[in-house]
TrEMBL record:
SUPFAM superfamilies: Family A G protein-coupled receptor-like (SSF81321). It comes from the Eukaryota. It comes from Eptatretus burgeri. This is Adrenoceptor beta 1. GO terms for biological process: adenylate cyclase-activating adrenergic receptor signaling pathway; positive regulation of MAPK cascade.
Length: 222
């Protein structure tokens, strides 16, 4: 039997393994470079968004831009320590998608009630919505994570928790269901419903405008 083959696992060892590792290195380097480039572009884009809104008084007065600023802050959040990093990661992800949900509702109000939009969606109400988004995100992330409610009793998970070099986010079933529902599925369903209503309302307004234009053309041609 070839000594380079482990009879217990059937995996190649020795020179063949070294060759495989050498072949994988360019792929790892390329993928890592792509992720770094994507991260830089994302951070730079969010900084530009915040800078553009903060430097332009006209943009700062827009209610929708308050939500966009909140979204940019959510995308920029992060940390290095394990539990802090996990909680900030969940916090920013939850705040990001929930802010997208609020933006969808804001667009729905703007489309369905354009004349009353300024009185309905005031800066005060926008600020309250943003505070609610971040409070809800903090409730589902910082508190349960630092209290350990997310931890699983699985032996493999416990081994990771005990290993200071391991920072995998291995959760128990209940936390995974509740967290994913609040952080993703419920806002996602709301966005689908709201944007569907926005599309139907836009189509209705286009049809109404088309009829009105036809009538005006008819009267003008008489």
């Amino acid at each position: 039997m070839d000594p380079r083959i482990n009879s217990g696992s059937g995996k190649m060892t020795g020179n063949n393994t070294t060759n495989v590792d050498v072949l994988l290195q360019p792929i790892d380097i390329a993928f890592g470079t792509f992720l770094i480039f994507l991260t830089i572009i994302t951070v730079a884009g969010n900084i530009l968004v915040l800078g553009a809104i903060s430097c332009n008084k006209r943009l700062m007065q827009g209610v929708t831009n308050c939500f966009v600023s909140s979204l940019a802050c959510a995308d920029l959040a992060g940390s290095t320590m394990c539990e802090i990093w996990i909680s900030i990661d969940v916090l920013s992800s939850t705040a990001s998608i929930e802010t997208l949900c609020v933006i969808a509702i804001d667009r729905y109000v703007a489309i369905t009630s354009p004349l009353r939009y300024q009185s309905i969606m005031t800066r005060r109400r926008a600020s309250i919505l943003i505070i609610c988004v971040w409070l809800m995100s903090g409730t589902i992330s910082i508190l349960p994570i630092h209290l350990g409610w997310w931890r699983s009793g699985d032996p493999a998970a416990q081994a990771c928790y005990d290993d200071p070099r391991c920072c995998d986010f291995i959760t128990n079933k209940y936390f995974a269901i509740i967290s994913s529902a609040i952080s993703f599925y419920i806002p996602f369903i709301i966005m689908i419903f709201v944007y569907n209503r926005v599309l139907k309302e836009a189509e209705r307004q286009v049809r109404a405008f088309s009829v009105l234009s036809t009538m005006l053309c008819f009267f003008v041609s008489m």
